[in-house]
Amino acid sequence: MRAVLQRVQRGAVRVDGTVVGAIEHGFVILVGVGHGDGEDEAQWLARKIAGLRVFEDDAGKFNRSLLDVGGGCLVVSQFTLYADARRGRRPSFTDAALPDAAEPLIVRFAELLRQEGVDPVAMGVFGARMQVEIHNDGPVTIWLDTAER
Questions:
Q1: How far is CA 26 from CA 55, 139, 149, in A?
Q2: Catalytic residue at 43?
Q3: pTM of model > 0.70
Q4: Is 79 among the catalytic positions?
């Protein structure tokens, strides 16, 4: 699994002009599923994100986690994180898992974030054309890939 985390002041997802998920302070997480990803990858990613210390303490140092600051997560499925653009001008997405494998794992990932204590956890709509509103705070953007753990 791959994830791009953006620390945000707020974030929202709209489908057909309607807000389907929104958070205030926390992370917008763009997450993609690759072939062979499963429960272990989702658990590792949820645990890592919940405990990642990228929020400032009183001294301005990155010493607080999402759990420490009471932040939420907005999870947005993003198969394009598996784009391979090394050749030609049109990326290949063959490394991305097919929807029937990816969707349940993204839902499970959101459940695991909740189990780690993250509240709220909002989601986009899998497979929908979404407009994602990200008010990046910092900016702070982190790339995580379970294949590199």
A1: 9, 12, 23
A2: no
A3: yes
A4: yes
